[in-house]
Write a sequence for this structure.
């Protein structure tokens, strides 16, 4: 009986043939390249620029996978032989255009597959390159729903779209007592952050909570102006979508001006060392959205037995606690590992191998320390893993996170409403 993805393989082969005809990929990328005894994964991420912290997080995640499988298993076993994994990096420079060039570089260097960027705006430039060149691509980080709504056949993501994460975390926060009656929503004007802010606003509207304001700002905005406007609205909650720098600027300006709503919910990166170090004494009591922390109750699987086992190994390797982006990036490598084992083709991969790999990824189910990974096929979340549960966390006085929602996952009670700045 034919496999379920046989029709998809036929389509992918036609796409690959078209790409070859118009010369969209280098010969090494399309034909498998020179012989070698390693699987070559090209990783495109921001190693410089204002997103370099997040780029470093994804790099640690990808390296954690490659270093562990090479050290503990000697690589990936194919037909009785073992092939180590080599991850080669190209710097996206926190810029979509540079990210597209970096992806092309990795393909022309003969990569068997791609590991994706940290940010959504860079990922949105890399996905078309992967598509045009018929190159498998898994991102362990990007969360913008725009990526999956495009219906790319060659791109996959291990972290659920932020339209789910932001909505579910906000809904959990809105269930706390006393239930809030109003929210103020802000975000950074770029794809991921805008999608986050929209999801927060939608959750509030669906709950019948008044949205006092919804506004997006440039990355380099002066947050004293943002906070002044929010303070005049006097909301119960302030919800913010952005990267770590904007979170730090928001809470710093809030303390400076004495703006204390009952709580701040921010996404992404509340549980990172960068946010805690950047905001210092302002970090405690912040609410955040995540899909993984070391204390979450999930079974382990391939390579790591549990979330805590992964966290311990990562901290020993890098001297810092991993966040969910690092975990999701390691999970992306594990998914490739399992798919390549099923493919059972030695490197370098031919185009037929890569097309077959896409079919395997569409059907794969992998149990990992990060959670179960399966990819949607079709619909608005095409090739996104939407199965990992969203967690609402709150930082304690010592900066440690507690899962405070949803109720079935909570490990502690929220400190809510949060203390005023002068009472901490």
């Amino acid at each position: 009986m034919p496999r379920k993805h046989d029709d998809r393989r036929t389509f992918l082969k036609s796409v690959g043939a078209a790409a070859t005809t118009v010369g969209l990929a280098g010969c090494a990328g399309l034909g498998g390249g020179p012989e070698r005894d390693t699987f070559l994964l090209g990783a495109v991420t921001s190693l410089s620029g204002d997103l370099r912290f997040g780029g470093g997080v994804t790099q640690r995640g990808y390296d954690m996978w490659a270093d562990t499988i090479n050290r503990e298993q000697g690589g990936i076993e194919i037909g009785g032989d073992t092939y180590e994994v080599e991850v080669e990096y190209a710097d996206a420079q926190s810029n979509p255009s540079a990210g597209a060039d970096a992806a092309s570089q990795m393909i022309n260097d003969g990569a068997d597959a791609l590991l994706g960027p940290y940010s959504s705006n860079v990922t949105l430039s890399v996905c078309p390159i992967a598509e045009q060149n018929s190159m498998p691509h898994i991102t362990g980080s990007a969360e913008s729903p725009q990526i999956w709504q495009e219906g790319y056949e060659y791109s996959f993501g291990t972290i659920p779209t932020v339209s789910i994460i932001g909505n579910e975390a906000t809904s959990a926060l809105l269930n706390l007592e006393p239930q809030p009656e109003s929210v103020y929503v802000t975000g950074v004007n770029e794809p991921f952050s805008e999608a986050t802010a929209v999801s927060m606003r939608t959750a509030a509207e669906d709950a019948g909570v008044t949205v006092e304001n919804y506004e997006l700002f440039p990355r380099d905005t002066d947050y004293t102006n943002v906070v002044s406007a929010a303070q005049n609205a006097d909301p119960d909650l302030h919800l913010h979508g952005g990267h770590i720098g904007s979170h730090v600027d928001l809470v710093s300006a809030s303390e400076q001006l004495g703006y204390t709503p009952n709580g701040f919910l921010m996404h992404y990166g509340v549980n990172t060392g960068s946010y805690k170090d950047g905001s210092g004494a302002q970090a405690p009591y912040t609410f955040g959205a995540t899909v993984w922390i070391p204390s979450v109750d999930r079974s382990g699987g391939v390579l790591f037995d549990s979330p805590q086992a992964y966290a311990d190994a990562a901290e020993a390797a890098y001297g810092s606690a991993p966040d969910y982006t690092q975990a999701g990036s390691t999970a992306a490598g594990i998914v490739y590992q399992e798919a390549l084992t099923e493919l059972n083709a030695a490197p370098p991969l031919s185009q037929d191998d890569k097309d077959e790999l896409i079919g395997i990824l569409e059907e794969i189910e992998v149990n990992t320390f990060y959670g179960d990974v399966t990819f949607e096929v079709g619909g608005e979340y095409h090739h996104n893993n939407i199965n990992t549960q969203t967690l609402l966390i709150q930082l304690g006085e010592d900066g440690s996170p507690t899962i405070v929602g949803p109720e079935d996952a909570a490990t502690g009670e929220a400190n809510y409403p949060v203390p005023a700045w002068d009472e901490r």
Summary: The chain has two domains: 6-160+297-373, 163-290+390-423.
